[in-house]
């Protein structure tokens, strides 16, 4: 395979780690200036296959060191130590509209990492790898406790770090595609937060009509009253439609006073009124879907639905009412929400109010809500 019959060696350290822990991928025993492809493959719990790959050229010593060497092509480019994870996509020929989500947090995400001769972009299964390693990426660290929550009408899952506490708390709300998504809360608990994944969009549409401020206030109190949670150190975390929930209840609820808010890929340009349900707000957004369009690959683009960002304060969350620190995380390539325009408007409004405790992070790499709202 290689010069003088030397067998390439692939190492991944640590091979077992938390999902967000950086790993070091190194290929050795290659000829100098050898073109190779590093490839990752994962079979999801839905049995679909996901992959990522980067094109590398070995150095004068015959090594590829991913944390310092650039990928010159593939699903990611440049020096990207975690590119083999964050750039994963469905393999060619997969069924449409897939979403990579970990359902069972007690088991690891198993990722096969392999190195191939040459710069490949397809046909990995038909080729023999030079070397391969199986790695495990975990969301739930040893000692983290998972507790089902069904109290006071609230449904969710609480993850508690090991130790006596009290721990800072996080109320975690995903998007409007519904269901109870636990893996982010499990990972937060693995880093020392008491995190509760909250179910607020139910398969039973009738129940959704009753989910409004009282439900979120009850969930906040439940987390606040837990003996292992620091009552004055609770954050709200929202993604997609969850951002609408976070901003609305922080601005208008007298019972919800978070220490800070983190909002990922959402907008303030729609809000939940004090007497409204989440379902009513979602229906209001859906009525605007006539403005949605499709791209050249027939993918539905929703970001136009809320554009232009309204100037009328009655049509969006009144950001001047929010007094806690706020972090907005958006992707410049987000095609589901007008996240960049919304964050620009929020920043303008906050500075107009003389508030300077907002942070605004933009990512040039795709950061998208890949599922339905």
From TrEMBL:
Residues annotated as domain BAAT/Acyl-CoA thioester hydrolase C-terminal: 215-363
All residue ranges annotated as the Acyl-CoA thioester hydrolase/bile acid-CoA amino acid N-acetyltransferase domain in the record: 20-151
Gene Ontology biological process: acyl-CoA metabolic process; fatty acid metabolic process
Pfam families documented for this protein: BAAT_C (PF08840), Bile_Hydr_Trans (PF04775)
GO molecular function: fatty acyl-CoA hydrolase activity
Domain of life: Eukaryota
InterPro entries recorded: AB_hydrolase_fold (IPR029058), Acyl-CoA_thioEstase_long-chain (IPR016662), BAAT_C (IPR014940), Thio_Ohase/aa_AcTrfase (IPR006862), Thio_Ohase/BAAT_N (IPR042490)
Sequence similarity: Belongs to the C/M/P thioester hydrolase family.
Protein name from the UniProt record: Acyl-coenzyme A thioesterase 1-like
Annotated organism of origin: Salvelinus namaycush
Lineage of producing organism: Eukaryota, Metazoa, Chordata, Craniata, Vertebrata
């Amino acid at each position: 395979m290689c010069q003088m019959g030397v067998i390439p060696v692939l190492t991944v350290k640590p091979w077992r780690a938390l999902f967000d822990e950086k790993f070091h991928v190194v290929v050795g025993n290659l000829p100098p200036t050898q073109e190779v492809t590093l490839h990752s493959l994962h079979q999801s719990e839905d049995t679909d296959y996901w992959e990522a790959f980067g094109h590398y050229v070995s150095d004068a010593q015959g090594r590829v060191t991913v944390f310092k060497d650039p990928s010159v092509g593939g699903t990611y480019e440049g020096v990207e130590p975690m590119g083999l994870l964050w750039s994963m996509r469905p393999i060619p020929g997969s069924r449409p509209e897939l979403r990579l989500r970990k359902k069972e947090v007690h088991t690891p995400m198993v990722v096969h990492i392999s190195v191939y001769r040459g710069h490949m972009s397809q046909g990995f299964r038909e080729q023999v790898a030079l070397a391969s390693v199986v790695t495990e990426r975990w969301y739930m660290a040893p000692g983290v406790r998972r507790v089902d929550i069904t109290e006071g009408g609230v449904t969710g899952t609480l993850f508690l770090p090991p130790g006596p506490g009290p721990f800072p708390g996080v109320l975690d709300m995903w998007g409007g595609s519904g269901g109870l998504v636990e893996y982010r809360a499990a990972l937060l608990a693995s880093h020392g937060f008491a995190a509760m994944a909250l179910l607020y969009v139910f398969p039973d549409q009738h129940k959704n009509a009753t989910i409004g401020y009282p439900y979120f206030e009850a969930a906040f109190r439940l987390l606040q009253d837990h003996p292992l949670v620091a009552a004055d150190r609770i954050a709200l975390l929202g993604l997609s439609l969850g951002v609408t929930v976070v901003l609305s209840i922080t601005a208008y609820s007298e019972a919800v006073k978070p220490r800070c808010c983190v909002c990922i890929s959402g907008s303030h340009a729609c809000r939940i009124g004090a007497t409204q349900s989440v379902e009513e707000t979602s229906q209001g957004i859906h009525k605007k879907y006539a403005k949605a369009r499709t791209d050249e690959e027939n993918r539905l683009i929703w970001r136009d639905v809320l554009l232009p960002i309204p100037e009328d304060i009655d049509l969006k969350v009144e950001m001047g009412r929010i007094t806690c620190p706020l972090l907005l995380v958006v992707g410049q390539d987000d095609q589901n929400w007008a996240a960049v325009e919304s964050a620009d408007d929020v920043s303008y409004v906050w500075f107009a109010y003389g508030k300077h405790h907002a942070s605004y992070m933009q990512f040039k790499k795709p950061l998208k809500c890949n599922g339905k709202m």
